[in-house]
Structure formats: C-alpha cells, structure tokens
Write a structure and sequence with these properties.
The protein is mainly beta. It contains one helix and 21 strands.
Length: 390
C-alpha cells in the first residue's frame, strides 16, 4: 500500500520514471567471546527522474536486540543530478566508490565506514554532503568536487565484540578547523580500449582525511575522534589482458598542520583471473599485496583500519555455480607477512524463490600483539540470515 501510494504520488507530479526498491535483512550473529545477537537491517531506496533532473534517496536502518548503539535509522543518500551536454552535476548526500582492489580500497577516501553495521565490510559506508562537476572528453572525465561537512562517527558499545578502544568513546568530533571547512578535490580519468583495455585515475585532494586520530577528552575519561587536514595524491588503475585483470592503487598523504600524525604512503597491487565452466562452475581467483609506510615511525600509529594493510597478502576465490538460484561462495585470507597475523573470511549465498536470499558468513581473527586487531583477541564470528527484496 505504501509503495503504491508513493508511486501514484510521484507519477502525479509528472515524473517519467520512478524506481522504488527495499531490502530487509534478518541476521543471527554468534560470537566466540561475546553474547549472540539478532539484527534486522536494510534500506529503502527511492529514485526518480524527469526531463529536468534525476534524484535518489536511500534510507538505512539497523536494530540489534542486544547492543544499544547498534540501533539507528537515517537518510544515507539524498542527492540530485543533472546532465547538460558533456557536463554532469551532482549535489547532496552521496556515497562514492573509488578503488580497484578486492580486499581493501586505499583510494576510497570520500565516505566514512559504517562501523555500527560491520567494520569488516568495505561496502558499509556513510553518505557525505558533497557536490561534483564532471566534464566528459569522449571516454575520459575531468571532475572537480567538494565535501561540505564532517560528520560525527558512532562506534559500537564498549564491551561489544569489535569495540576498538581502551576507554569509553564519545562520538562528538573534534576538528583542526571547522566542520564546514570544505574539502576539495580534482581528478582525471583516462580510458583506453585499443591494444589493452584499461582505465586509470589520478585524484588530488585537499582538506580533511578520512583517517582520524583518537584523543583524550573530558579530563581524559573518554576518547573522541580528531579530524585533521591533509594534502593527498591518489592513483588507481586496472588493465585487462585476456582473462586477467591487473590492478593498482596508491596514495601519498601530507599532513598539513597536525604534529602528532606522520605523513604516510599506501600502496596496493593485485591480479584477478577468471576460469570458466570448470564442471559447470565459474571461478575467480584474487591475489593482492598491500604496504603502508610512515615517514616518521615515532608518531601515532594503529588508529585506523587502513593500517591493518601493511606488508599484507590477500588471497581469495569466488565460486559461481551458474544455477537458477544464483548460488556463490567467496573465501579469503589476509596474511601479515611481518608478524603472521591472519584474518579468514568465508561467505555463501543462494536464492530462495524469487525475492529471498539465504546467506551465511564465517569470520576468524588471529591477531598478534601490538597491532590494531590485538584489542579484539582471537575472535570467531558466525552469522546466517535471510534477506528479502521488494
């Protein structure tokens, strides 16, 4: 009834195309060291367009029966876009995906992660108030953008399985400048379809970094995030050769005026190979290597999930069973070559009937002392659930 009413209302406004989609995900999560929980999460997506512009709104929600902070409902995307000749404008609260690698995207710096949903899911992101202007030159794109606002960031409750801090946390953000101090970037994307199919992008960034430090507040009784300003140079590229894809991501970050934080480099390279019809199954293999360099080793370390990817090897495989149920299995391992720290993850899903998907996941952490993951200790998470899309 609600869907029909929305469609009728929007059609009455003279819209030429309306899209409504919603997903509800019911999930049971069991932890080796913490209480199990039941979660209900999902999104409601509304998109529409007419002859003048297009727009999109996405509402997301999460409810946990056990953990207080894992409860929210908010608008994650709300933006309008317009094409004028070779130009495209976008303005509003948006999620942007920058990156090529499968395990972790070094260059994906526009949006903060949604740690309440899942700190180990790179697609769990929060929208940012921003705007872009793009100019197309055939298949190449010149883009300029601005991020208008820095949001507070919630973490899970103290005592939950993935609480990363030794003290209570307050989500009120502290900043080097103002919340509304703009972050700006310019990028250029080059696409080739001649001898080798490839796409490369260079991004120059000035403003707040997505990585933040943690500082003591309230007479050192709590910790809060501190946002500092940087200059960044980012590069991402992929080249397709027969049934292989070669990928590269890298960044250099110059900290402008925040003395506790060192300048740093990040680098990742990998390859993806597809094998088809092996006993009716398609297989994709991934191999990637990550490195993180600090220019001053005496300064602050291990405050962001990106720092896990330092001298790490990521190996993964995806099996697509090519059946009518769209069944697939993904398995991956992150192995630290320096200290033997390991993370294992296996995911599986299959369709039930038309709109239901049954899914499950096994996650295993084997951290080493003096690392970012050590605060979680040896940890196993097993979850399974059912999602419904309408």
């Amino acid at each position: 009834m609600i869907k029909a009413a929305l469609l009728l209302f929007l059609t009455g406004l003279g819209l030429e195309a309306v899209e409504f989609k919603s997903t509800v995900d019911m999930n049971y999560v069991n932890y080796a060291r913490s209480d199990a929980q039941t979660e209900v999460s999902g999104d409601i997506e509304l998109g529409y367009e007419n002859s003048f512009f297009e727009s999109k709104m996405v509402l997301i929600y999460l409810y946990s029966n056990r953990y207080k902070e894992k409860k929210y409902i908010h608008v994650n995307e709300l933006y309008a876009a317009k094409n004028v000749g070779a130009y495209r404008f976008e303005l509003g609260k948006r999620i942007v995906y920058w990156g090529e690698l499968e395990g972790y995207n070094i260059t994906d710096v526009m949006n903060q992660k949604n740690y309440l949903l899942d700190p180990f899911d790179k697609s769990a992101k929060l929208g940012s108030w921003s705007g872009t202007l793009g100019r197309y030159f055939g298949n190449d794109v010149l883009e300029a953008g601005v991020k208008f606002y820095e949001e507070d960031l919630d973490l899970t409750d103290q005592g939950t399985p993935y609480y990363p801090l030794p003290l209570p946390y307050t989500s009120q953000l502290h900043l080097e400048d103002e919340r509304y101090t703009p972050t700006v970037y310019v990028s250029y994307t080059v696409t080739s379809e001649e001898t080798l199919e490839s796409e490369s992008r260079v991004i120059l960034w000035h403003g707040y970094d997505m990585k933040r430090n943690f500082i003591p507040v309230d007479h050192a009784q709590k910790l809060a995030q501190y946002a500092y300003r940087v200059n960044k140079a980012l590069f991402l590229s992929h080249i397709v050769y027969e049934d292989m894809i070669f990928k590269l991501e890298g960044s250099y970050t110059q900290v402008i005026g925040y003395a506790p934080m060192s300048d740093y480099w990040q680098f990742g390279a990998g390859a993806e190979k597809s094998l088809y019809d092996i006993g009716g199954i398609d297989m994709t293999l991934y191999g990637e290597y990550y490195r993180y360099f600090y220019e001053d080793d005496a300064k602050v370390k291990n405050v962001d999930i990106s720092e896990i990817y330092n001298d790490d090897l990521f190996l993964a495989a995806k099996l697509n069973f090519n059946d009518t149920l769209s069944s697939e299995i993904k398995a991956g391992m992150l192995y630290d070559l320096g200290n033997s720290e390991k993370v294992f993850k296996v995911e599986a899903k299959t369709r039930l009937m038309d709109r239901f998907v049954l899914h499950g996941e096994w996650l295993r952490l084997l951290p080493e002392p003096n690392t970012l993951l050590w605060v979680f200790h040896d940890q196993t998470r097993v979850q399974f659930g059912l999602s419904y899309t309408f």
